[in-house]
UniProtKB/TrEMBL annotation:
Its main location: membrane. This is Amino acid permease/ SLC12A domain-containing protein. It is found in: Membrane. Keywords: Amino-acid transport, Membrane, Transmembrane, Transmembrane helix, Transport. The keyword Phosphoprotein does not apply. The chain crosses the membrane at residues 40-64, 70-96, 121-141, 161-182, 194-214, 250-270, 290-309, 387-410, 416-439, 459-484, 496-514. It is a multi-pass membrane protein.
Length: 555
């Protein structure tokens, strides 16, 4: 017989979350905790590093200049950190399936959970074509017609070495690999993402080091670049040739949307929380290291990019359909001829990693919706090993969009995907911030000391409010460029504002349908699932030697 959950004494400030003693049986239809510490560490890293950093910075440099690029990524980095400390505090305490989607149901209302869940699922369904259209632009080896959507990037990359083989063969091969990985369960996904993310980390670190060497004159041409391009063509770009401070400000603002696209995925660790081992120890470690990753990979990376490539380089303009990674442009300018195939292979692994993460995240988001009653219950079915196989199979069907093609304008189509996924991702961050603000009010109303949480920071609730306000403002003005004289474009307007309008429509329609008011702070549930979470915690054996101790610290 299940014991009654303990209720906190709302009038006592001495109550803590350590007092909870509840027994909750683990029933069928649940995810299993198969993701180890190193998996969580690399999933959180892999969510940060992607084609947005490798290549998406091209447009940003062309729009904002080297300083505009750097300031734009610094601004977005502060928003990401604010979102992650908010999410980390909640998910480290309640590492439940569905992540922030399920947390919104507890601390806001079912309508917010409904809106966040479908927005998140939509985001990870749409983001895939954007990633791979970008790679199509980068590697138009001999394709003059079709540009496949999702997994076709891998086919195009392989086509670099084997142009005589049909791309459809490689597309199907990639689909089979990605679906197989996800059908083998969270453990298999964790292992492959560990490998893929490791390659991405080594690639970006190698490119940054190489970039610094080239900038200092260590390339074959021995040209010491220094801060040359900060002086000519200059630190900022006059966006659309708009003169003065207004043009420079608009150039910086244009960078923000692309910067958001680069950072989207940082929050994947929350979706993986329901399948993480020892989540109350491993998740805080992953959240804390977001600071280092943002500083190392993005701030240092964009600084190096701004040093190596002039903002007026024509290869930076992705809409032209012939863009290249700023790193590749710099390597070519320096006269290094031996790296294209190696970089191509690294980007191939990045494409596979993105495809695998897309399927994992979208399937878990759909599972989270199902267990909340916001999607058909069939998507909540799991195998004996804890795999939500119905959700995985359904989401895998969307990988067949890899056979879709566009006959022209791949660069412009890519920017549409960037607009849609950036705004949808920002709305996810907005929802996380709102959920945390409510979570914080609930803790305060029930007299629960935040210092008893597995993870907390002193910057709350200010960080959550900052993330909430800035994400809303950026979304509101994300499509401002179409309102400039002579710049109206219906497709750009629709793709930019569709997710922004879609989110409140989902929320309002759900509120009207369910007619359930927001959860009151003193009625918020901080107890359910705690016993099972604590029961799943397992003490790690002490490290056997210094090497193992270092590995644990690193991961």
């Amino acid at each position: 017989m299940q014991s009654e959950p303990k209720v906190f004494n709302k009038g006592s400030s001495q109550d803590s979350l350590q007092d909870v003693e509840v027994t909750i049986p683990k029933g069928p239809g649940q995810l299993h905790r198969q993701l180890k510490n190193r998996h969580i560490a690399m999933i959180s890293i892999g969510g940060v590093i992607g084609t947005g950093l490798f290549v998406g910075t091209a447009n940003s440099l062309a729009w904002g200049g080297p300083v505009g690029l750097l300031l734009g990524y610094i601004m977005m980095g502060t928003i990401v950190l604010s979102v992650m400390v908010s999410l980390g505090e909640m998910i480290a305490y309640l590492p439940i399936p569905g992540g922030h989607i399920k947390l919104a149901e507890r601390f806001v209302d079912p309508a917010m959970s409904f809106a966040m869940g479908w927005n998140y699922w939509y985001n990870w369904t749409v983001v895939a074509p954007g990633d791979y259209l970008l790679l199509f632009i980068l590697f138009p080896i001999h394709l003059t017609g079709p540009s496949p959507a999702e997994l076709s990037a891998a086919a195009i990359l392989i086509d670099y070495w084997h142009p005589s083989v049909s791309n459809a063969v490689f597309v199907m091969m990639c689909i089979i690999v990605v679906v197989t990985i996800n059908m083998l369960g969270a453990g298999a996904y964790g292992e492959t993402e560990f490998v893929f993310a490791s390659i991405k980390v080594l690639t970006i670190i190698g490119l940054i080091i190489l970039g610094i060497i080239i900038d200092l004159g260590g390339g074959p041409d021995h040209d010491r670049i220094g801060f040359r391009y900060w002086k000519n063509p200059g630190p900022f770009v006059q966006y659309k040739n708009i003169a003065g401070a207004k043009g420079r400000f608009l150039g910086w603002w244009a960078v923000l949307n692309n910067a958001a696209f680069s950072f989207i995925g940082t929050e994947i660790v929350a979706i993986a929380a329901g399948e993480a081992k020892n989540p109350r120890r491993n998740l805080p470690k992953a959240i804390r290291r977001v600071y280092i990753r943002v500083l190392l990979f993005y701030i240092l990376g964009t600084t190096v990019i701004g040093l190596l490539v002039p903002s007026n380089n024509q290869q930076l303009v992705i809409e032209s359909g012939t863009a290249a990674s700023p790193f590749v442009i710099a390597i070519q300018k320096a006269g290094i001829k031996s790296l294209p195939s190696l970089i191509n292979a690294c980007l191939l692994s990045s494409a596979w990693s993105a495809a695998s993460s897309d399927l994992y995240t979208s399937s878990r988001a759909l599972y989270g919706l199902a267990i909340s009653g916001n999607a058909p219950r069939i998507f909540a079915k799991t195998s004996k090993s804890g795999l939500p196989y119905v959700a995985v199979i359904f989401c895998a069907l969307f990988t067949l969009l890899a056979f879709m093609a566009v006959s022209a304008g791949a660069g412009q189509v890519f920017q549409w995907f960037v607009n849609m996924t950036s705004v949808a991702g920002l709305m996810t961050w907005f929802g996380i911030a709102v959920t945390y603000i409510r979570f914080h009010k609930g803790l305060k109303a029930q007299g629960i000391d935040r210092k008893t949480l597995p993870y907390y920071t002193r910057v709350q609730p200010f960080a959550a409010w900052y993330a909430c306000i800035t994400t809303f403002i950026i979304c509101l003005f994300s499509g401002w460029s179409v309102f400039l004289k002579g710049e109206w474009d219906t497709a750009t307007f629709v793709t930019t504002y569709l997710p922004f309008i879609f989110f409140p429509i989902l929320y309002v329609s759900s509120r009207l349908y369910y007619r359930i008011p927001p959860v009151k702070p003193h009625e918020m549930d901080f107890v359910s699932d705690i016993a099972q979470i604590e029961a799943d915690e397992v003490d790690d054996p002490p490290p056997k030697n210094k090497l193992e101790a270092f590995w644990r610290w690193l991961m």
